[in-house]
């Protein structure tokens, strides 16, 4: 299948379809762009050691050039040449969580071009837990710089179809390895300075990190404390993960959220708006007069993470004008889900204030 000069390879069997991965690797080795599956979301890969190739990623996505990229490796050994020094703590994290959804920010080596790091003196690295991703990196023979394979600002892709919706004709190829299992991006953990800081909550939770490296902080909390420090992750300042419709995020207790959602549906319908609700399974059946998509139980953030981005894209296909999203508890993987919903949302409402709130 060919889509506007974008090659497409379906990988059903990693051994039988090895030739396709070799071809895709060769494209990356010669400076091209290939989108590929990872366990978190699909990535858009280029040779991380080739500044010119990396520049094409920013162009294809419409991404601001000061937002640095994650470098993907197929083995821990490859990090040695990318980083100016791997601390025992860094190695411990790699041995515990790799391959997997943990990105480590380390001091960079001279080998990593400034296009990858947005001029920072650190580099973000991760080893993905997806056989197609690792075989692609091995086939390319170079580390692979890759952001999520979506147009900048829109929801990240969790299937090859999502990638083609955004990037057909703008990239050289797409490897289809089926849907991403996890559905939200990796945790970005900065260990380049003394205190480990979570720059972006993701697939590896704080609860999982603490037994391995002790207490960790969230950059978001640090930045609130110290108003005037520079954001540590340039990506955090941009609006992200947003569908075309406006998102209103309701936070609070399940019952308060349900009541507030029902009121909002009525209000928006009165304004002739087509309403979508991203609902918990507990509340989904209560809502009338709206397109309702359930993310599963409020108590199961892993299920919500797996469907979150596909649901946001689906609402756009349905042509809704506004999406009301039910928040969930901020613990475990729920932290990553809520982080993405907050970044997608134009408005965040505490549902407990339902009676008095007149927005
Ligand atoms: O799960 C993932 O991490 C996916 C898959 C494809 O691996 N990738 C991904 O990449 O989410 P992207 O570009 O969408 O997000 C990378 C994040 C951004 O917030 C960026 O600012 C941050 O990592 N980042 C990259 N390098 C950094 C650095 N040297 N220092 C601080 N933050 C960095
Ligand atoms: Mg992204």
Which key features would you list for this structure?
single chain; alpha/beta; DHBP synthase; 12-stranded mixed β-sheet; 5-stranded parallel β-sheet; globular; binds threonylcarbamoyladenylate; binds magnesium ion
Question: How does the SSE layout of this entry go?
Answer:
Layout lengths: L1 E2 L2 E5 L7 H12 L4 E3 L6 E5 L3 H11 L8 E3 L6 H4 L5 H10 L4 E6 L6 H4 L4 E5 L4 H10 L3 E2 L14 H8 L5 E4 L10 E4 L6 E4 L5 H8 L3 E2 H7 L20 E6 L2 H17 L4 E5 L11 E4 L6 H18 L3 E5 L7 H11 L2 E4 L9
Parallel strand pairs: 2-9, 3-9, 5-7, 6-10, 11-12, 13-16, 13-17, 14-15, 14-16
Antiparallel strand pairs: 1-2, 3-4, 4-8, 5-8, 6-7, 10-11
Helix pairs in contact: 1-6
Bound molecules: threonylcarbamoyladenylate (TXA) and magnesium ion (MG).
Describe the structure.
The protein folds into 2 domains: 2-228, DHBP synthase; 246-353, Threonylcarbamoyl-AMP synthase, C-terminal domain (Rossmann fold, 3-Layer(aba) Sandwich). The radius of gyration is 21 Å and the shape is globular. It has 12 helices and 17 strands. Strand 3 and strand 4 form a beta hairpin. Helix 1 (18-29) packs across helix 6. It is α/β, with parallel strands linked by helices and 359 residues long. The chain has helices spanning 18-29, 51-61, 79-82, 88-97, 114-117, 131-140, 160-167, 206-213, 219-225, 254-270, 301-318, 334-344, and strands at 2-3, 6-10, 34-36, 43-47, 70-72, 102-107, 122-126, 144-145, 173-176, 187-190, 197-200, 217-218, 246-251, 275-279, 291-294, 322-326, 347-350. The relative contact order is 0.14. It has a 12-stranded mixed beta sheet, sandwiched between helices. It has a 5-stranded parallel beta sheet with strand order 15-14-16-13-17, with helices on both faces. The structure holds threonylcarbamoyladenylate (TXA) and magnesium ion.
